[in-house]
Amino acid sequence: MLRVLRTDLYRLFRSKSFYVYPVVVTFVLIISVIFSFKTTDETQEAAKAEQAGLVVVSSEENDIDEETEGVRKTPIAEFEAGFNDGYRGEIGYTDQNGKYVYIGWEALTESFYDGFTIFFIGMILVIFATSETRKGFIKNSTGCIKDRSYMVMSKIIVGITIMVCYVLEYVALSSIFTVIRAVVNGSSIRWKSLPSGSGPKYFGFVLTCFVIFIAIITILELMHEITGSRALGIVIAFGLTSTLLEQLAHGVVELLRFLFDILRDFDIGKYLLMENIVEGYNSEHYHPEIALTMSLIYIVVGIILSIVIIRKKDIK
Known about the structure:
Layout: H1 2-14, H2 20-51, E1 64-65, E2 71-72, H3 75-84, E3 93-94, E4 100-104, H4 110-113, H5 116-134, H6 137-144, H7 149-185, E5 188-192, H8 199-227, H9 230-241, H10 244-260, H11 288-312
Parallel strand pairs: 4-5
Antiparallel strand pairs: 1-2, 3-4
């Protein structure tokens, strides 16, 4: 098992596709920094105009702090209130005046929300898994090992390795570009800690996200053993991580309700993996117990089926 894993990890770190993700993230962050310059300039001009009395603040705006009897919240107070009320967090959040840039623990979960990171994890895993068939490497592997199940477990561990590397790369690159943006804009960087008492819930959410990612990795490994197709594997990875398949599941449930008047009280969203994490740990759509249970079921069933398939199929 260890020999198979060492070989796979060696192939992974030698693969050019493995290094595509940090390049893409760097490009996206460069674009976001460029756009942030314009946004910061606009917010600063708006703040100056308001202070000079050139902009009238409408009473309909939801910017009145009831506890201070009608005194308008400062941008910092608005941000802190939003954060404590369940603000998802945004790497390099800038206040209205552009004076402060906030970073904190919430930066870690930014890579979980939109499916961008997990899509690249799935795509690179599919490319890695299918490359052994395309290059004929799998014939030598199966001839040198006693148990083909090692190959399944090795690929899942490779997927976990990709996941850890990409999440850490995202956080590191985002933090670096946050500092660059703050320096260029002349803003001060402030650390925003988690609201008091929310630490266990937040880190429980992080753990849930990682388990969900492992479940998706296991599903993609199973699809690889069933189909062996790179194109289909990437399509499935996109469908899982973009919530496209989950939206389809919602559509099927709604169709059954409409045609047969069934499943009226059934909330399928509780059982969908990505839907549990895309809106953050304070969302009403987040059900950690159900998400962890479903993920463990997918992991166990996926591993068992993958092992059964690889033991019985002919290696070409």
